[in-house]
Amino acid sequence: MLKISHLTKQYNNDKGIFDLSLDIQPGDLYAFIGHNGAGKTTTLKCLAGIQPMDQGEIMLDHISLKNDPIAFKKKIAYIPDNPDIYDFLTGLQYLSLIADVFEIDNETRNKKIQELSQLFEIQDALDDLISAYSHGMKQKLVIISALIHEPDLLILDEPFVGLDPSASLTLKNIMKEMCAKNKMIFFSTHVLEVAEKLCTKVAIVKQGHLITSGKMEDIKGDESLEDVFMELTQHENINKSM
Amino acid sequence: MKTLISLCKSQSLQIINPKDPKFLKKSGFFFVIALIIGGYLCGYCFFAAYYLSKVGLLDLLPAAIFTIASLMALVSSVHRVEGTLIHLQDDAILYALPLSKRTILLSRLIPMYVETLLVLVVIFIPCMLAMSYFGNIAFDFYLRLIGLLPFAPMLPLALGILTGLIIHQISQRFRHSKYITILLTFAFVFIVYYYAFQMQNIENPTSIFEMISQMLASIYPLSQYFVDFLIHSDWIALLLYLAVQAISMAVIIAVISRTQANTTIKLTVKKSGGLKVSYQNSVLKALYKKEFRRYLSSVPYVTNTAIIYVLLLGVTIYLQFQDLDTVLQFLEIAEIKPMIVSALPLMIGFLIGSGTTTGCSISMEGKYFWQNKVLPVKPQTIFLSKILVNLTLSLPTLLIASLLLSHSLALNLQELMTVLILPALQAVLYSQLGLIFNIWIPHLSWESEMKAVKQGMAQMLVILSAMAFSFIPIGLMQTAVLPSTAILSVIAVITVIGITLCTIYLLKFASQKFQSI
Q1: ipTM for the complex shown
Q2: Which sequence spans correspond to the domains of chain B?
């Protein structure tokens, strides 16, 4: 289980994320939604260990990110919104680097690379330099590198941006399969329809504060997620202006 | 014109921006570094002026400085073609705007010119101070010098850019274009320095003054016009000087305006015959391989660091075919040979330090840096991989150079061991220092790799440290207060203590700083 307790990270411009607490259970497919600048990426970066947090604690299966970051990171994978990966390597060299870092044996890595590269249809490009890849191809490579060590927690920041429809569908299926195997997925998105159809749980943030979180059906009831999201965020505005 | 000014402004803002929260810190660093470099240059110029004035050759100082500075400008402008003039990350943005190719390229050429001019001015100020201190120099000399300087960067810049463009055009025809660029750049630099070392076209010199004048003119013919106007007020020489400089600049502007804009990444897709089996490496080996590939993938990174090692090897090979004793006797300075041998470990140490790759190894991660934080790897392992890449380059170079020098200078075993061990220890220290400086002062948001390599303060600090570790002891050797062996022993002890302290810092404290980047 992932337990985020009182996570706070504030930037100089007063933006960030404030006192966020959230639990993600095995098998959860958790959507994290909010306006631009609401603090989604900051939260995901704190979870991935990219941004040091100001306050709070993040625990994954009783492993603290603060106290044992290496053990924590071995159990997670992070897919950023912008696939800035080592473009001086070929696709295969990059995947081998990730496999080496996660200490995956030859047999497993070859099997996984073959399988995932075929699924995402980039097997023919793996011998090319990443600098020659399109944005979508880079995104596919990052996804493959994130899945290669079968993480317990997958953190994704706007994962469907730049993917072609086929790759998008493949990723959705993989996400569902992972949750069926009791893995956890936490991802941010602006596409509310995707979140509504795909996810079991949802958290909505606004200006760095968690407005609501819980099971998808409990949050949205009979309405669409879009209506609920607009209602909640506008309601907050009204409260503030009053 | 307005657009051009705006573009030039945006280029300069990438270096230093008053709205940057770190503006004051950066300006302070620039100021301190400028002071230190100015101090070093003053020391060098006053030292040279003192000896030249003693033998009545003080007038040669500006010509020598002009020639050396022009050669440096030529070589550095070849490096800067890729990364500054072409292949910038903002190509995609700028070429999509309604701007002419000429305006875009000029907006990159002008900052290159200004930067080169500033370097020349910084080099000439200590020269002028030293000349006025040791010589009886008329006021109009300085006016003539100030008038000549703005034109000085033009020819070296034009030749350098032309060479860089030719290298770029040739290398683009190959799949491994970056390696070809690196090889051709090295070949060019090697030819330039080889040519500069040759004392050609010197016919029956009647004096050392004439011999050195002829030598400088044969290296760089414009130095003759420069000196003729500066010292002898020869107006025809001035006209020729201005004409050559201005025409060269006009030609290069015309050439780059016609250069094909390279806005798209060249797709040199290799046909793959199925997936190759990827073998498992240890984490350190994997990171080392990644780091080495990153190093070789960047032309500015390689040409600005490995060039020092290539030149060191080049000089040591060259010395195999020269009789150093004869040259020293001809220059009437045969007595300095023992001093050269004593100072050799320090000079080599300085060169090894100047080629350190770790001073910008964190900055070179740029937009990829996030991966270091996400992966389950201890920062210490990342540090070690970066240090090992540097040592892979420096230690074999050092070994070959030492063995060659032991032959050409007839070093005994003790001297050979000193030449080998002290610089080897310093290579370790400089790679650690470079890394520490870069962890303290990273520069990840660069637009061009050139900016991470050339304008990185960490890289500058490691070079300054290498200068301090070499030139101060060499200066002390000159004073003969302490025997050379004692000075070298003290430096060796300081180096070992430095390595120990840096190791402790990297193992215990640097991780936190690294994580906060």
Answers
A1: 0.77
A2: 32-264, 287-517
